[in-house]
């Protein structure tokens, strides 16, 4: 499991290799995507008040993007995260096409 920041645009999740310290930009997670593009992304919310717990799992194929799609994804990430406005990620951008969603919540559905 690897934590990362992301943005959702329609049915696509984007994330980028950012400026946080790393030994290399050619990360194992990128090699994993090249070898097998089927990924799961899990987002969860934890709170001491267990009545507010939830998680969502998005599954689908991932791909490393460039050109216009990468620029758009970086703009969306910068819009969401002030840190990316100050220092835009320089590494690869990954797109995950959401093919399946699963979720769970302790709160009753409305």
Number of domains: 1
Instruction: Tell me the number of strands.
Output: 6
**Largest beta-sheet details:** 6 strands, antiparallel
CATH topology: Pnp Oxidase, Chain A
Global mean pLDDT: 90
Helix content: 10-25%
**Low-pLDDT regions:** none
Q: Termini distance?
A: 31 Å
What's the CATH architecture name? Roll
Short description:
The protein contains three helices and six strands.
How would you describe what is shown here?
The protein is globular and about 45 Å long. The mean pLDDT is 90. Strands 1, 2, 3, 4, 5 and 6 form a 6-stranded antiparallel β-sheet that branches. The chain is α+β, with helices and mostly antiparallel strands. It has one domain (7-105): Roll (Pnp Oxidase, Chain A). 25% of the residues lie in helices and 35% in strands. It contains 3 helices and 6 strands; from the N terminus they run ββαββααββ.
Give the secondary structure arrangement, pairings included.
Elements: E1 7-9, E2 12-16, H1 28-35, E3 38-45, E4 54-65, H2 67-80, H3 82-86, E5 93-97, E6 100-105
Antiparallel strand pairs: 1-2, 2-5, 3-4, 4-5, 4-6
């Amino acid at each position: 499991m690897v934590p990362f920041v992301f943005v959702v645009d329609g049915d696509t999740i984007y994330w980028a290799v950012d400026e946080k310290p790393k030994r290399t930009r050619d990360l194992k997670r990128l090699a994993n995507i090249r070898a097998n593009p089927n990924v799961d992304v899990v987002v969860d919310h934890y709170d001491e008040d267990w009545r507010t717990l939830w998680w969502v799992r998005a599954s689908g194929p991932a791909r490393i993007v460039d050109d216009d799609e990468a620029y758009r994804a970086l703009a969306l990430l910068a819009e969401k995260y002030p840190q990316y406005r100050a220092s835009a990620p320089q590494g690869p951008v990954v797109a995950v096409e959401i093919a399946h969603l699963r979720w769970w919540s302790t709160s009753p559905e409305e």
